[in-house]
Amino acid sequence: MLLAQGYLLQQEGSVADASDIFRRILDLPNQEPDFLRRLFTAWSWLALAQMTAPHDLAQARTYLQRIVQGGVTGELLVEARRMLDSLDQKRVR
């Protein structure tokens, strides 16, 4: 439920509220360190990176690096690496 709420707020441009929701997901207690936890964590970090990148490249990079190091695979990992490469190119300019 929180993930859907966070995405909806993000789409509406309510960045502060959406960020709070994604941070709540990351701070949920008593979570098993399984695939689903890694996936929800990575989705939250990706959303935070997307919202943070326009004003804080370093923080966005930190979120994306957590995804790359977090053990997820597939399209989510590809998207995180693609965004990380994009941020690295912006930093060089």
Assign a percent range to the helix content: over 70%
Query: How many helices?
Result: 5
Rg value: 13 Å
Percent strand equals under 5%
The CATH topology turns out to be Serine Threonine Protein Phosphatase 5, Tetratricopeptide repeat
Major sheet attributes: none
Q: Spans with pLDDT under 50 lasting ≥5 residues?
A: none
CATH class category label:
Mainly Alpha
Architecture, CATH level 2? Alpha Horseshoe
Structural class by SSE content: mainly alpha
Number of domains: 1
- The average pLDDT value, as a whole number, equals 93
- Outline, from the CA principal axes? globular
Secondary-structure element order, as H and E?
A: HHHHH
Distance between the termini: 39 Å
Number of strands: 0
